[in-house]
Amino acid sequence: MSLASRIAKVNRSEFLFSQYRITRRAKANPESHSLDLLYLEQQPLEPLLVETPYAVTLTNCWGLRVDQHESEKLAGCQSQRTTPKCYEPYLQHRCLPWKLWGLAQVKAATAPEPPSSSSPSILNSKSIWPVSSSSPSPDLLPQVLAPWLGGRTPAGRHLLRALRLQTSSSRIPKMCPSLSRAFWTSVTKLGLHTKPRMPSCDFTPEKYQSLAYDRVLEVHRLHLPPVPTAYFPKPLLLHQGHMEWLFDHEGNRYLDCFSGIVTVSVGHCHPKVNAVAQKQLGRLWHTSALFFHSPTHEFAEKLLALLPEPLKVIFFVNSGSEANDLAMLMARAHTNRTDLISFRGAYHGCSPYTLGLTNVGPFRMELPSGLGCQSTMCPDVFRGPWGGSHCRDSPVQTIRKCSCAPDCCQARDQYIEQFKDTLNTSVAKSIAGFFAEPIQGVNGVVQYPKGFLKEAFKLVREREGLCIADEVQTGFGRLGSHFWGFQTHDILPDIVTMAKGIGNGFPMAAVVTTPEIAKSLAKCMYHFNTFGGSPMACAIGSAVLEVIKEENLQENSQEVGTYMLQKLAELRDEFEIVGDVRGKGLMIGIEMVKDKMGRQPLPQEEVNQIHEDCKRMGLIIGRGGIFAQTFRIAPSMCITKPDVHFAVEVFRSALIQHMERRAQQNS
């Protein structure tokens, strides 16, 4: 069977990604031995690395030659928010906007001597290898490619194996790493380890004129807490931000896909939020709750309109820890009970009170704190004992197999039995409440089986406890399908805590509850907060809500987040060290493992190197998980699909470089 037929057969198995379609040439000269490859070129002006003796030309998806001038024009409109109509014929409906679908025609030639170090290895429209009139059969492509790729890189060896596909079996596997985009990209483009090109940005940062970098390090070492919180061996010194972009003290630009720990919701220094803040700054900064000021009441009304009945009383505070601290007090005051339950892996704050609810190792203390708090098993369908391919409310499911039907999750029932065991053995017959993040954040974007929280809330209420939803990271449209994370579980909490995205980085938070629970707290104590609900905070909060609505950022989270999840899931299928991709909307986790079968965490030094490589190429992502083995992606909700494409390409490049380092160490 010819190479073209082999690859066409694999293609019909629906394995190959849409970026690659390899078929026998069926036009002009059907007898010629050549192949057509449909190729998505992110940067039309950047030449292809093709270290082979083949003629290569780029055409668009209708077979029309794209000349250098047209490529330049297309490249110029890549990062625009709208696509000029004159270029619409060049764009394929189902591909990324602003990107060029190219048809790379590869025609086999008589193999010359392998190129020397001085021979050109970069081909573009002005530099094409000569094509011999006598071309070998495509079946000889592996032999022709061998001198150029045979032993040079791991990717080259994978490509050769791909070209020697065996098709004797009637069953074509759905997953074929040999033809993965990662390996092809390594050969064609990233073998040079060039940085993927960033989408353009129309913002120019001010020149940095503050403390020298070394002085900042010295002050930090001498006078700031001796806790190693900063990312990277050489910490970033950030200077300025604009929407989804950050700039360091040297003027380097970064795509911020962690948004200040899931905090900058609508974009750094969003123009509307900035304008509102500046206006309020010139009017009145602070009053305290002893006096009234209309921005506080306006914001309360706007925010409560987004929550269902009977959640209609709001307490303003200043941080997520403070909000959960107050929620703990409310639950105990209303129930006159002490015991509170939270998941292992949960993070609900770092105050002395909330440390009892937080169950992530580095945050735990050897000294007693948070008395009356009990932990229960986290229903993690990837790392836990149960879970499979139908469990999560996500566009991407775990690769673990299970016997569940799509509408009946057995893992949920097994985790519920563990929850019942906690209720029966670790707490009193009546409890104060149960805290849950709709999706765990610090633990690495862990999702529970569908229906679990609904059943758990029912069991808690049977014990006369309150149900508290911690929306500090999941709220304000970040999950896309709903404005609040608890809505994705079809549940109604008794108390909702919120922070981070509520102020787009301005320090503010809130606790929302029912009138009945609010009255119970008022009977127990005189609650007062000096800075809670300040004029500045509430004016900014109102502006954030308006921007989310006016710019359709919740819808953007759904569309762009789903797209990003699906693209990252392709990397999971390509790389053995990517164990799981999960999440919803623009809250995404990528869990790194030694191998998919064992699911043991990838060693921290290896995760650190991948993290560093991403930063070096202009991408900021977060970390999470019990062993810091999970990359957390939670950009501002203004992020675009071109931004996502850049982020995915950077992460792919970092993974390829890691695999090459590993191969060199093992060779």
Average predicted local confidence, pLDDT: 78
Total beta strands = 21
Shape: globular
Number of helices: 17
CATH architecture of the largest domain: Alpha-Beta Complex
Strand order, largest beta sheet = 10-16-15-14-13-11-12
- Helical content class: 25-40%
Task: Work out the radius of gyration.
Answer: 28 Å
CATH topology of the largest domain: Aspartate Aminotransferase, domain 1
Instruction: Compute the number of structural domains.
Output: 4
Overview of this structure, please?
- The chain is globular, with a radius of gyration of 28 Å.
- The protein is built from 17 helices and 21 strands.
- A seven-stranded mixed sheet has the order 10-16-15-14-13-11-12, with helices on both faces. The protein has a four-stranded antiparallel sheet with strand order 1-2-5-4.
- Helix 8 packs antiparallel against helix 14 (535-550) and helix 11 (410-425) packs parallel to helix 12.
- It has four domains: 3-149, no CATH class; 213-262 and 553-666, Alpha-Beta Complex (Aspartate Aminotransferase, domain 1), CATH 3.90.1150; 279-319 and 499-551, no CATH class; 335-497, Type I PLP-dependent aspartate aminotransferase-like (Major domain) (Aspartate Aminotransferase, domain 2).
- The two termini are 34 Å apart.
- The longest helix is centred in the last third of the chain and has 26 residues, at 641-666.
- It is α+β, with helices and mostly antiparallel strands and 667 residues long.
- The protein has helices spanning 3-12, 68-76, 141-149, 154-163, 181-188, 213-223, 259-262, 271-281, 294-304, 320-335, 410-425, 452-462, 515-524, 535-550, 553-574, 604-616, 641-666; strands spanning 22-24, 34-41, 48-49, 55-60, 100-107, 122-123, 238-242, 245-248, 253-256, 313-317, 340-343, 373-376, 433-436, 466-470, 495-498, 509-513, 578-584, 587-592, 619-620, 622-624, 630-633.
- A hairpin with a 2-residue loop joins strand 17 and strand 18 (587-592).
